Each structure stands twice: as structure tokens, then as C-alpha cells.
Amino acid sequence: MNRERKTPERRSRKARRTRDTLAQAAFELVLDRGLRDVTVEEIAERADVDRRTFSRYFASKEAAVLDSVRGDGDRINDALRARPAGEPPLTAYCRAVLDWLADPEAEAWHRRPRIFELLVLAEQEPTLYAAFHHIRVDAQEDSVAIVADRLGADPRQDIRPAVTVAAGAGALLAAQTAWVRGGCPDELPQLVEQAFGALSAELVQEPAGPASHSTTEGNGTP
After folding, report:
1. Which end of the chain has fewer CB atoms surrounding its CB within 10 Å, N or C?
2. How far apart are CA 143 and CA 139, in angstroms?
3. pLDDT truncated to tens, each residue of the chain (222 aa)?
4. Could you give the CA distance from residue 178 to residue 184 in angstroms, rounded to a whole number?
5. How many whole angstroms separate alpha carbon 172 and alpha carbon 75?
6. pTM score, two decimals?
7. Which of 45, 39, 88 is nearest to 61 (CA)?
8. Run of H or E residues at 129
């Protein structure tokens, strides 16, 4: 029985190592040479596997090179699950992101070598940007389910969880975009705090009064 249990475990560890090796090979090659100058065959060769093995793990070289950031959505969602139950959902989402950024063991993007370069490249390469967008969407779907559970709501009928996540994720995306385009790799946490602060300020801002009418209206001035 022990042998039967250990065999699938060994296979799982071997598969994980193979996937990680392929992802690391893609990451290094693409950042060193550019997305368009790297082929799937070269990634497989660097990882010492064949093309068929690559295709078992990844649908494209874009998916392989971005595998290093795929787990970050899971880390944010784990932090979201751990937030106090009494927190308002948007506050919980924002603080979960800040928890992820502050956790040295999570190795958020500003701490992880060359992730800044990767996201700069994603801004420049449409296919890489599209693949990154799919990763964000997958993470946000999980976030919606978590927020719905916090609210005791059915996300298929109650729009609040989706609106909450869209607002928080939108602020995070704005901070990420400013980070990448600003060229300052260490400033991500400050930009995220600014983005969430701007979101909070917008939520509590007093509504503008009715527009005043022109003083010249009706006085014959053309």
C-alpha cells in the first residue's frame, strides 16, 4: 500500500520539476533574447526534453514564460480568504493585495528577480499581454467566488462580488501599469497603496452639486 501511494507522489513531483524547468527555461530565454527570437523547440532543448513534453505542460511559449507569475493570483486569494470576516469586501481585497506585497515569503513582483523585465516585455508584446490577461481573469474569477462566500451571496444572481473584485483588481492593474511604465522597480508597493487610496477617496467623495447656469444665459449676450 505504501508503495502504491508513493508512486503517484513521485510522478507528481517529477511532473512539477519538469514544468518548473520548462518555465524557467522559457523565462530566461525570452528575457535574454526577446519573445519573437525564441522558439518552443529551443525552450524544450534548454530544459532537456522534447517538443511533445513541452506541449503536455504548456499550450504556448507565452504560457510557459508567464508560469512564474501564475501563482501570484493564488497567493492573493489565499490572503483574501484569511482576512477577518467582518471587513467590508473591497477593504478585504485591497488589504489582501497589500499582505501579499509585504510578505517576504511570497516574493511579490518587486522582490523577485527579473519579474519587472517580464512585465515590461508583456506591455510590448501583444500575445504575451493577452496571455497575462487570461491569468488575471482566472485569478479574479476565484476572487469573485471568495467575496461571494464572504457575503453569503450567489455570484450568478448578485452582482456585488464581481463589482468588488473589478474595482480592486482595476486599481491593482492601474498600479502595475504605472509601475512598469515608470521604470522604478522598487516602487510597486507605494503605487498599489496610492491606487487603493485613490479608489477609497473616490468611494467617499461628496457628489458634485448641480452645474451652475451661465450668468450670461438669457441676458442677450451672444
Report:
1. C
2. 6
3. 455 555 778 788 899 999 999 999 999 999 999 999 999 999 999 999 999 999 999 999 999 999 999 999 999 999 999 999 999 999 999 999 999 999 988 899 999 999 999 999 999 999 999 999 999 999 999 999 999 999 999 999 999 999 999 999 999 999 999 999 998 999 999 999 999 999 988 765 555 555 544 444 444 444
4. 9
5. 14
6. 0.82
7. 39
8. helix 126-151
